[in-house]
Amino acid sequence: IFEGSRRGQKIVANIYSSPSTKTTSETKRLTVLLGHANGFHKEIWEPTLERLFSYQNSEWSIERAVALDGYNHGDSAIANRAMISAENYAPWFMHARDILSVTRQLEQQYGKTQKMVGIGHSWGAVSLLLSENISPLTFDSLIITDPVLHTKAAWHRDYVEKTMRRRWQWKNIDEAKAYFEPHPFFRMWDPRILDLFIHQGLEHTEEGLVLKCRPSNEAAVYAGAAYTSPFATRNLWRVQCPTAFLTGEKSQLSPREHIEKITAGMRDCTHAVMEGVGHLLVQEDPDRTGDQYAGLLDHLVPRMMGDQDARVFDPLVPGMDADPKTATSMQL
């Protein structure tokens, strides 16, 4: 449990490592910090992390992966319930400041012997960009997964209203499964992700099972996008560390043309598109998401070490342009 950016606030995290990692004195050791999408929780990353750990090699090794629960999500929401119970507006800067608070505590605890890589999805991705904007070069590189980067302020009233109408209470786990498993929205997910969402995203109370992230808190995050998402978009050029964007081919939030346009002014940026998935690529295909992260780390690690001529091509991910000067978009 980490201290949040506000007094009395807690940020709960899981820390993962791989006992089978084989390294040499030349291996670049990484600390990976992961931020989930709105409405989810830290355990959602486990299938992707398992896949990513299997790719470690003599070039890079993940010393630890730190998956956070946003302050009003998952176990952090339980710890902060008194602070968030009346929340109706959650600017994304708050999550960004919490991320910075956690990175400082990680450095105090472990020292700065590893490179810090941020991997975020949707809300978590934009929050990483905002944290890098607030405190440049906190991260040595970023992998930004299907971010919500608007160019104009928008209140997303439909998202807020739809979320507030969502069911969030069940009598027991069987009733919860009977609701989630046949639902068209959740049926698109990898079964492991849905199982983690049901077993780790629900809280036992006297009334039964309830979502740890209450609809009011999820809706507050949607409302909080109004100004902070456009701010992040306008200030992408300020991000100084090597950055890779991974988006879903079918994503309506991060279409290829939009990402290429808004990232044109970034100093060191790669964009990869994952075929056959939408905005929730982490939920739909966690294994292939892990594959893409591994390929992107093969590209990013040399660049974060100062090799600006590092090749973009990765044999695991055919279709990448070998020339980083022309590799603004790649089909994975």
From TrEMBL:
Domain AB hydrolase-1: 32-289
Any one GO molecular function term: monoacylglycerol lipase activity
Annotated Pfam families: Abhydrolase_6 (PF12697)
One annotated GO biological process: acylglycerol catabolic process
GO cellular component terms attached to this protein's record: membrane
Protein name: AB hydrolase-1 domain-containing protein
